[in-house]
Fold each of these.
Amino acid sequence: AQSVTQPDIHITVSEGASLELRCNYSYGATPYLFWYVQSPGQGLQLLLKYFSGDTLVQGIKGFEAEFKRSQSSFNLRKPSVHWSDAAEYFCAVAAYNNNDMRFGAGTRLTVKP
Amino acid sequence: EAGVAQSPRYKIIEKRQSVAFWCNPISGHATLYWYQQILGQGPKLLIQFQNNGVVDDSQLPKDRFSAERLKGVDSTLKIQPAKLEDSAVYLCASSSPGHLSGNTIYFGEGSWLTVV
């Protein structure tokens, strides 16, 4: 079955600095990949998704992610972080034609003023 | 547009008691999901409905968990009897029709369960 690893449990960045959150997946074929954000006490909100085509995906709130098949990665990036970006970020993978979407354990982002 | 509604938001029960969570998906969404999110972990799919039929319940602990979506709209997730390890947030989500069709899954704010 497919699986996701988010190597960083907690990341702290200064406001205005760039951000990269790592995500590695395991799946034998082309995966469907997602990034979600969860603020405290809230449900998950989809930031972006990759199904096929251009490997650089643009999402909401200025986020982007790049699918790299050779590295089995789908890292999330943002050029300039805002204090409101502080939240938990989850990477998820789904297999083609499989409804089971597997989430990583999440990366908690803290933004310093 | 109203989002996915869940209730209750918070519940504390003793082990071996039962609990039920209710979910009202976004109007018109045929697909409904229940996820379990244990503290420090990502959400885990418990069950997925397409209208009132079950698509996937492979990770649902069927000896104690049950879920139904009788009329293809609202859904109820029940735990009986509860164990300490069931303490988690139970997230309901919906999409139209399924996320692999390119449609976004919308999540509710979750029902927080503490089993003591």
Amino acid sequence: DQQVKQNSPSLSVQEGRISILNCDYTNSMFDYFLWYKKYPAEGPTFLISISSIKDKNEDGRFTVFLNKSAKHLSLHIVPSQPGDSAVYFCAASARSAGGTSYGKLTFGQGTILTVHP
Amino acid sequence: NAGVTQTPKFRVLKTGQSMTLLCAQDMNHEYMYWYRQDPGMGLRLIHYSVGEGTTAKGEVPDGYNVSRLKKQNFLLGLESAAPSQTSVYFCASSYSVGATEAFFGQGTRLTVV
């Protein structure tokens, strides 16, 4: 059973426009959410995160929104650039699970973002 | 500034052969992880370690063994490789309690024929 789902396998956006990547989760124990970016033949690199006590976190062109009641989060990239073309993974962790989460991450399937010049 | 380094980067195995994947980190992290990435599945946790001398099972541990004899190294072993283990393997590490983001290696592409 997929506890973290990214239902859009791919997204195509024009340079300068907004990219919105979505992620849904089912496990109520998840209280920390992360987005990773992955280029071909490289490992995932951390992009941005959000704790469940917040509903928004910004870092430059990247903003993550969390809707706990809907168990949904989204990553907004504004403005999108061709260098943003990559696979984006949503991940979740249950940090407050009695300290036993040990940083384990549950990942979504990934969304391939293509930004056209 | 190496971070997390995986060896080898590519490998082709015949069914039934064994091999060990090596992961080394130079960030003095307590926690280390092995994930596999398959098309349409995202990354799934195989085994993890919360410190030197400790290991624990993740989501998909069958067919794999691990060891953490030194804090900086985490080894993933396949005793008898099967075609179902064809995948891209990623090692990662993170700080201890309260760990947030994990740092990943560049991956090992393994093909079992």
Amino acid sequence: DAGVIQSPRHEVTEMGQEVTLRCKPISGHDYLFWYRQTMMRGLELLIYFNNNVPIDDSGMPEDRFSAKMPNASFSTLKIQPSEPRDSAVYFCASSLYEGGRDTQYFGPGTRLTVL
Amino acid sequence: GQNIDQPTEMTATEGAIVQINCTYQTSGFNGLFWYQQHAGEAPTFLSYNVLDGLEEKGRFSSFLSRSKGYSYLLLKELQMKDSASYLCAVRATDSWGKLQFGAGTQVVVTP
């Protein structure tokens, strides 16, 4: 399997611009997670989906952030408008609940820099 | 809420053993994970414990005591490539699928 795929790998944008991050989970996985990682705050869960339905978005910082999962093989995380404090590495992860356990597999991440 | 504590950094010599401790406080407990993250890369899964005891997987072992809210990751026969951050993550019973990650322990392996 190709693993979790994220694009772009790097994004540099100016404050106020819209940013869209993309994720393709591992085929057959029923959970998808969006995380943000910074030196100051570590790895934070933003939102997660089960079978394409958002389950918990309590980690989404504010209304500028939105996430969608239109089908089982694709998800987006959008920031509009972007701010310098959004600069971070954004990871997408997926998992399959099976046999009473699940393991999250992470994509390579998108390094976002907002100037 | 959940509170997860692990040391910030540990240094050890190649070939030695290092034990990384993790303590947690949760409203309920439904599993503990250890992940390894090399600089500039994504976290990768190392181990999973849901019952008390020791899980061994090659050079890496993980231990859990639910009554004490305590886990450790044991790295044996350290190699230079083991230099990385090690993240402890806990899943609570009321939030299936959701993991709370600790800040990570940076392990530095010296020659």
